[in-house]
């Protein structure tokens, strides 16, 4: 129960960041970041009496209904919560906070707005959820045209960018392209940050002592291989394990103390599934 509450809290923080990015950086500067928010921006420009939050709620309801019949009901509770939570938070900001541009410099709006948007979406995606909208449209395209999901999402964003260029001018359309490209990079980096751990290979003659320290003190499992030096022809044991940065610092200090001749390789493991890490069934 605690874990579920934590996940929904993290998702809430994520879609609030997205709302702030759109309402205080994108909308006042007529810049679109793609997706359903971009479509809502274009409609709101032509029909200003319709708040973006309400537009997004309506579009999400329509898209979820269409997707249910076209691609099946494969949408989890977290995605439903994130999609409608984003729409509601956008409406609350519009209704009660009267948003205005925090900067009128388009490039600053793109950089700061996309930074917040990418971090917010990355946080939501890291909890195995999404904000609906673009994902649903992409799934519908995937169903009919059999394109891969990445291509479908690019196609949806391309349509939004074109609509933005027609509505707000070519300049704003070009800014929208920058937003979409930068957004994808930031989302990937945020997700990597959530899932990133270190994989460590330790070549040592004191494997029993180091293995015991990893299991008892760091509280991690490990695997021990037998290796043979290509140059020295000497037998050595190799300990392989995966851990977070804090645990790595402890292990590195211990190895320096216990075996100065050890050879250690550390590399990034961007996603680890299984015991002690992310559930393999939800990966």
Description:
One of its GO terms (cellular component) is plasma membrane. Its main location: membrane. InterPro entries: DUF2179, N-reg_PII/ATP_PRibTrfase_C, UPF0750_membrane, YitT. It is a multi-pass membrane protein. The chain crosses the membrane at residues 7-25, 79-97, 106-125, 158-182. It is built from 10 helices and 4 strands; from the N terminus they run H-H-H-H-H-H-H-H-E-H-E-E-H-E. 64% of the residues lie in helices and 11% in strands. The chain has helices spanning 2-26, 35-46, 52-70, 77-97, 106-126, 134-145, 149-168, 170-195, 207-216, 245-258; strands spanning 197-204, 223-228, 235-243, 263-269. The chain is elongated. The model has no long low-confidence stretch (mean pLDDT 85). It folds into 2 domains: 2-194, no CATH class; 196-282, 2-Layer Sandwich (Alpha-Beta Plaits). By secondary structure, it is an alpha+beta fold. Strand 2 and strand 3 form a beta hairpin. The protein has a 4-stranded antiparallel beta sheet.
């Amino acid at each position: 129960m605690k874990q579920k509450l934590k996940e929904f809290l993290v998702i809430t923080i994520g879609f609030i960041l997205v709302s702030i990015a759109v309402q205080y950086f994108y909308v006042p500067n007529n810049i679109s970041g793609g997706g359903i928010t971009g479509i809502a921006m274009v409609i709101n420009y032509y029909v200003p009496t319709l708040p973006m939050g309400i537009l997004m709620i309506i579009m999400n309801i329509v898209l979820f209904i269409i997707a249910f019949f076209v691609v099946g009901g494969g949408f989890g509770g977290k995605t439903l919560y994130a999609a409608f939570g984003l729409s509601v938070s956008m409406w609350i900001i519009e209704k009660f906070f009267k948003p205005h541009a925090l900067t009128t410099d388009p490039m600053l709006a793109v950089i700061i707005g996309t930074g917040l948007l990418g971090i917010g979406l990355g946080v939501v995606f890291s909890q195995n959820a999404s904000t609906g909208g673009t994902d649903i449209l992409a799934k519908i395209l995937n169903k009919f045209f059999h394109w891969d999901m990445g291509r479908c999402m690019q196609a949806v964003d391309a349509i939004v960018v074109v609509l933005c260029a027609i509505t707000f001018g070519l300049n704003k359309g070009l800014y929208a392209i920058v937003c979409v490209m930068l957004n994808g990079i930031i989302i990937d980096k945020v997700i990597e940050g959530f899932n990133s751990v270190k994989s460590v290979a330790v070549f040592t003659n004191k494997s029993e002592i180091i293995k015991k320290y990893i299991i008892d003190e760091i509280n991690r499992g490990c695997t021990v291989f037998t290796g043979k030096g290509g140059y020295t022809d000497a037998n050595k044991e190799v300990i392989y394990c995966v851990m977070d940065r804090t645990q790595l610092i402890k292990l590195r200090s211990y190895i320096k103390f216990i075996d100065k001749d050890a050879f250690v390789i550390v590399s990034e493991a961007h996603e680890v599934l299984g015991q002690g890490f992310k559930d393999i069934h939800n990966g």
